[in-house]
């Protein structure tokens, strides 16, 4: 099952991303044929917008495309960060949310919703602040111990996640009329996507992804254990510090724009590892493409499967991903 | 090569190492010996810099160890831990190849010279037949040899080994000891190795450093240092010299009946109970 030609795998997944994007742009409450999409794209690039197609243009460029791109960005951040966390903590259960960033963001969002800051920008800002608070707490406690080890960090993150989750429950219990808003925010989704969000999450995620790719060789060595990594010339504490910081910031931007989308950051790295092997130098870029593609596809399904009702994208990611993942695990175990 | 000065190390005010002073010379095979909990592994970790919360100084080639850049240090010394876990299913070859990390750039590919070195190192450690196998599927001894191979890939003039042969069979134990002995003689490599077997120390080590309760109690040439008298004081075990052949050097044999050992433990338990 392992793919030998890794470069081809990257090219093929890029191809898959483009196809899925075109399909995603075409389907929906009003169907836009693929040829129309290409025509509209051409018009934008050549600067001549046909006034007859104003509504197609609006649906395509103001609603569907930013949504697709934002979904891609979210997946392209969650999956490689998940891969990095699993290597860093040497733990297959690690995912982008183990650091408590998402639950910090949830508390921030819940506070904004409860206090009546309903503008999406306000909620995002509050969520981002919550995520930053969570990161600061981790750094304050996790890096302070005399003998540094990742287990302390991991446990600090888990304990904090639970604490923040109970704060969210508390906020819900005390503000019954806001239950819906808070729960829907926590489930995550891209229905409020805008180009402004694409830019404000796309830039930090791209920078972070680039850094993770540069550090991916170090992640390989770090996944061998702290003492071995030290012996091979890695600054263990500093590297962990930097990888976690960049990852946490990427996730903070994604989560504050689109809520907490589960499963992607846990499973896509595993599936990518089954396909390409454990070398993070391939795993980080490939899982970014695979994660982006997966979220884009799931979001397209979520909004088209039961028109006019939109399903929460987190449900779709888990419903499709979990059975597929178990099937892959079983197949792997039969082969070896 | 390495100079340790006035090294003290405590965990929660409990002294683990007490005023360690020693000079390790280039090109020698050093055996670190001592009973369980005497501080061998901790000393090794302090020497290579993994454990840094100690007082005193460790100098490597006339420069404090802490002043080395990480990459430069990894080209000077390597460390094989007592236990390690593979984590992810890299192939044995990928795993061993990671030993070249201190020489590679961020995006540099593996060079032909690296591949050549990897082949040679894996054949020296008898792991070549495992090259394509996942490290997660190796046996304990096979994994230990792959770890040794990765350390050798660093091509360092100084090698620290913490009980590296504990899971190897007799053949591979002597093969590995020969290999490190060979490196000392031909390349001038310095080896500092935690070893438990007195006869291995006698046969392979140039020097032995004997630890007890966190202090160096004896050091020097193995045949002069590891006498039955010293061993009884440090290990509470009676031994005697035994000839292994007409022209072979004698070895050490345990001479205390097992019942005596159990008796000693019972006495100790009573003493603890009385407190």
Automatic annotation (TrEMBL), chain A:
Pfam families: FecCD (PF01032)
Protein name in UniProt: Iron complex transport system permease protein
Alphabetic keyword roster: Cell membrane, Membrane, Transmembrane, Transmembrane helix, Transport
Top-level taxonomic group: Bacteria
The UniProt record lists the keyword Cell membrane: yes
Signal peptide: none
A single Gene Ontology CC term: plasma membrane
Transmembrane spans: 68-89, 96-117, 123-141, 153-174, 194-215, 241-270, 282-302, 309-330
GO terms classed as biological process: siderophore-iron import into cell
Membrane-protein topology: Multi-pass membrane protein
KW Transport (keyword) present: yes
TrEMBL record, chain B:
Keyword set, alphabetical order: ATP-binding, Nucleotide-binding, Translocase, Transport
Domain ABC transporter: 2-238
Superkingdom per UniProt: Bacteria
PROSITE patterns: ABC_TRANSPORTER_2 (PS50893)
SMART domains in UniProt: AAA
Pfam families for the chain: ABC_tran
GO MF term set: ATP binding; ATP hydrolysis activity
Job description of the protein: Part of the ABC transporter complex HmuTUV involved in hemin import. Responsible for energy coupling to the transport system.
Protein name, UniProt field: Iron complex transport system ATP-binding protein
Species per Swiss-Prot/TrEMBL record: Breznakibacter xylanolyticus
């Amino acid at each position: 099952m392992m793919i030998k030609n890794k470069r081809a795998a990257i090219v093929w997944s890029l191809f898959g991303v483009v196809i899925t994007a075109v399909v995603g742009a075409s389907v929906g409450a009003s169907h836009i044929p693929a040829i129309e999409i290409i025509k509209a794209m051409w018009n934008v690039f050549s600067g001549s917008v046909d006034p007859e197609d104003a509504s197609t243009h609006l649906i395509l460029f103001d609603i569907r495309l930013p949504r697709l791109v934002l979904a891609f960005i979210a997946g392209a951040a969650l999956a490689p960060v998940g891969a990095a966390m699993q290597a860093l903590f040497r733990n297959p259960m690690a995912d982008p949310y183990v650091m408590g960033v998402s639950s910090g963001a949830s508390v921030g969002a819940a506070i904004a919703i409860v206090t009546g800051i309903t503008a999406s920008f306000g909620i995002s800002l509050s969520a981002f602040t919550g995520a930053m608070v969570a990161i600061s707490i981790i750094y304050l406690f996790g890096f302070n111990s005399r003998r540094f080890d990742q287990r302390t960090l991991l446990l600090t993150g888990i304990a904090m996640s639970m604490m923040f989750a109970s704060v969210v429950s508390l906020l819900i219990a005390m503000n019954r009329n806001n239950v819906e808003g808070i729960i829907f925010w926590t489930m995550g989704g891209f229905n409020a996507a805008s180009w402004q969000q694409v830019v404000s999450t796309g830039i930090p995620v791209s920078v972070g992804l680039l850094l993770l790719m540069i550090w991916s060789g170090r992640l390989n060595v770090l996944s061998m254990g702290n003492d071995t990594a030290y012996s091979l010339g890695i600054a263990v504490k500093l590297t962990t510090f930097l990888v976690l910081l960049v990852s946490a910031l990427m996730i903070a931007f994604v989560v504050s724009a689109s809520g907490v989308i589960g499963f992607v950051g846990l499973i896509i790295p595993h599936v990518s590892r089954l396909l390409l092997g454990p070398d993070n130098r391939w795993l980080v870029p490939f899982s970014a493409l695979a994660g982006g593609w997966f979220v884009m596809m799931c979001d397209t399904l979520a909004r088209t499967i039961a028109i006019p009702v939109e399903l929460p994208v987190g449900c779709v990611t888990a419903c499709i991903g979990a059975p597929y993942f178990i099937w892959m695990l079983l197949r792997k175990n039969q082969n070896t | 090569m390495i100079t340790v000065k006035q090294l003290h190390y405590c965990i929660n005010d409990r002294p683990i190492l007490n005023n360690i002073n020693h000079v390790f010379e280039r090109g020698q095979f050093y055996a670190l010996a001592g009973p369980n909990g005497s501080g061998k592994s901790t000393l090794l970790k302090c020497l290579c810099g993994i454990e840094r919360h100690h007082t005193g100084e460790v100098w490597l080639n006339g420069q404090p160890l802490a002043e080395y850049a990480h990459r430069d240090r990894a080209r000077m010394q390597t460390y094989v831990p007592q236990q390690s876990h593979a984590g992810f299913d890299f192939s044995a070859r990928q795993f061993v190849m990671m030993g070249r990390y201190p020489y590679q750039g961020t995006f540099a590919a593996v060079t032909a010279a690296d591949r050549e070195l990897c082949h040679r190192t894996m054949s020296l450690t008898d792991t070549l037949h495992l090259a394509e196998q996942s490290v997660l599927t190796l046996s304990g001894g096979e994994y230990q040899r792959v770890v040794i191979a990765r350390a050798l890939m660093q091509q360092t003039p100084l090698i620290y080994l913490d009980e590296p042969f504990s899971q190897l069979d007799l053949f591979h134990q002597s093969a590995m000891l020969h290999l490190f002995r060979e490196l000392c003689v031909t390349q001038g490599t310095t080896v500092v190795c935690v070893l438990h077997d007195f006869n291995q120390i006698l046969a392979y080590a140039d020097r032995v450093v004997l630890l007890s309760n966190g202090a160096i109690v004896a050091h020097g040439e193995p045949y002069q240092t590891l006498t039955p008298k010293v061993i009884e004081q440090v290990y509470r075990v009676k031994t005697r010299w035994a000839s292994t052949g007409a022209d072979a050097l004698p070895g050490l044999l345990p001479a205390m009946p097992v019942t005596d050992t159990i008796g000693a433990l019972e006495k100790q338990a009573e003493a603890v109970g009385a407190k």
